[in-house]
Amino acid sequence: MAKIKMKTPLVEMDGDEMTRVLWKWIKEILIQPYVDLKTEYYDLGLPERDRTDDKVTEQSALATLKYGVAVKCATITPNAQRVKEYGLKQMWKSPNGTIRRILDGTVFRAPILVDGITPYVPSWQKPIVLARHAYGDIYNSVESRVKAGQNAYLLITDNEGNEVERKLIHSFNADGIAQGVHNIDKSIGAFARSCFNFALENKISMWLGAKDTISKTYDHRFKDIFAEIYENEYRAEFERAGIYYMYTLIDDVVARIMRSEGGVLWVCKNYDGDVMSDMVATAYGSLGMMSSVLVSPDGKYEFEAAHGTVTRHYYKWKDGESTSTNSVATIWAWTGALAKRGELDGIPELTAFAKKLEAATVATIESGYMTGDLIPLFKREGVTPVKTESREFLKKIAEKL
Ligand code: NAP
Ligand code: MG
User: Fold this and answer.
1) Mean pLDDT score of the chain, rounded to an integer?
2) Does 74 sit in the ligand 1 pocket, CB within 6 Å?
3) Within 13 A of 259's CA, how many CA atoms are on the CB side?
4) Statement: 1-111+300-401 belongs to CATH 3.40.50.720
5) Using CA positions, which residue lies closest to atom 27 of ligand 1?
């Protein structure tokens, strides 16, 4: 076949450790033989972030704003131990945090389903996609311990410090605790639009859950903002697409999710999303089978795997030991980005190629070739375990492709 031509480059964000090793092989074995790959390359590997004082991360995010589609490899978020290990100038911030801040986006996580691997909830036949609001609530809260005989107030002032409103939280007659949380209408609105766009694009219905019966101002504000944006901007399009938006209480959503067959976008406030995304990911099987995309409210996309750099495997690999690292979610980052680029640039062959690569990957696992993380989950006969270093999994996919 002639290689598929691209128009606009993808923003390519390279990363660290085991996923950086897989990154190169995926390109060499599964993409470059078929696609005349055009990328604008940014090395987000920790040494380069340190060398550029993390400017490279910011530049890659700005390039994503310019071109619209990025594909990102997992990266190390440094902690004290990494500062020592890499001799860093400072403890650089999480690249994902920086990119999310610049794109003002929402992260959607979706499992990759394969016949033979049954979720822990057997009724979940289709993916449950989870969207988590990445701003506010307890993640930007202030908290205090309060002593018996003290009072805690919610106090609102104007910029001059004049009191606008004062509400008693509690008059403490015993020692206790108090907490102040906030959110911003604009952030909730951007979150809502990202979610409505994602649901429309993927033709899946969307459920938002909160606790407006108890939190009559705070949680209710989420319900109202979503409802208003839905009515004014999305209802007609949703009806044309044959999907719906529903708000219900968070406990009701949890009950419905457990009974559902999947195939919905579950929209969560920050804390609910933090907790529930781990539950959903675990129920579907392996972190190596969880894809992730950051979508900005104005339709810019950054595709990646939901897992990290798989450090434990990397150190074994470096010591020449055998490992079995799952490359599926990283392949999905590439196919997601290529498919989206094809769609935006009007290159249907590119989108079709991405879908075929996904199908070939699924077919390879279904025929029994898989990494160690999947073997205990696979409920069929005839498993052939594959090692990372042999690149056998990628070669098998190429054969199927
Ligand atoms: P991790 O890289 O996701 O790995 C945690 C464990 O999950 C692995 O040790 C492995 O279990 C299993 N696992 C994850 N992905 C796998 C795959 N593709 N194939 C097979 N097994 C897989 O998380 P971490 O060890 O907590 O973090 C490592 C580094 O990644 C950290 O520096 C962190 O900052 C970074 N990180 C980056 C991102 C991102 O860029 N989006 C996200 C999370 C973490 P076994 O060891 O039991 O085989
Ligand atoms: Mg969590």
Assistant:
1) 95
2) yes
3) 6
4) no
5) 308
Enter the tokens of residue 238.
Answer: 């949703």
Q: Which of 324, 332, 310 is nearest to 373 (CA)?
A: 324
Residue 112 in contact with ligand 1 by CB distance below 6 A: no
Residue 349: band (very low, low, confident or very high) from pLDDT cuts 50, 70, 90: very high
For ligand 1, say whether the CB of 287 is within 6 Å of any of its atoms.
Answer: yes
Torsion of CA 61, 67, 73, 75, to 10 degrees: 0
Tokens for 162? 């004049």
Q: Which of 31, 95, 42, 34 is closest to 66 using CA atoms?
A: 42
The CA-atom distances, in angstroms, between 236 and each of 119, 193, 230 are 34, 15, 9
Q: What is the residue whose two structure tokens read 């033989």?
A: 33
369 and 392 Cβ atoms separated by less than 8 Å:
yes
How is residue 60 written in tokens? 């890659």
DSSP 113: P
In one-letter notation, the amino acid at residue 98 is T
Q: Does the 118-140+184-284 domain belong in CATH 3.40.50.620? A: no
Say yes or no to pLDDT of 389 above 90: no
What pTM was estimated for this model as a whole?
0.90
Domain-wise residue ranges, the chain: 1-111+300-401, 118-140+184-284, 142-180
CA of 27 to the centre of ligand 2 (A): 30
Closest CA to 91 of 47, 50, 51, 56: 50
Q: How many CB atoms lie within 10 A of CB 180?
A: 14
Contact predicate 372/5, CB 8 Å:
no
CB 335 near ligand 1, within 6 Å: no
119-136 as b/e: b if 16+ CB within 10 A: bebeebeebbbbbbbbbb
Q: How far is the CA of 286 from the centre of ligand 1 (A)?
A: 11
Cβ of 325 below 6 Å from ligand 1: yes
- Name which of 201, 208, 206, 207 is nearest 241 in CA terms: 201
| CA-304 nearest atom, ligand 1 | 41
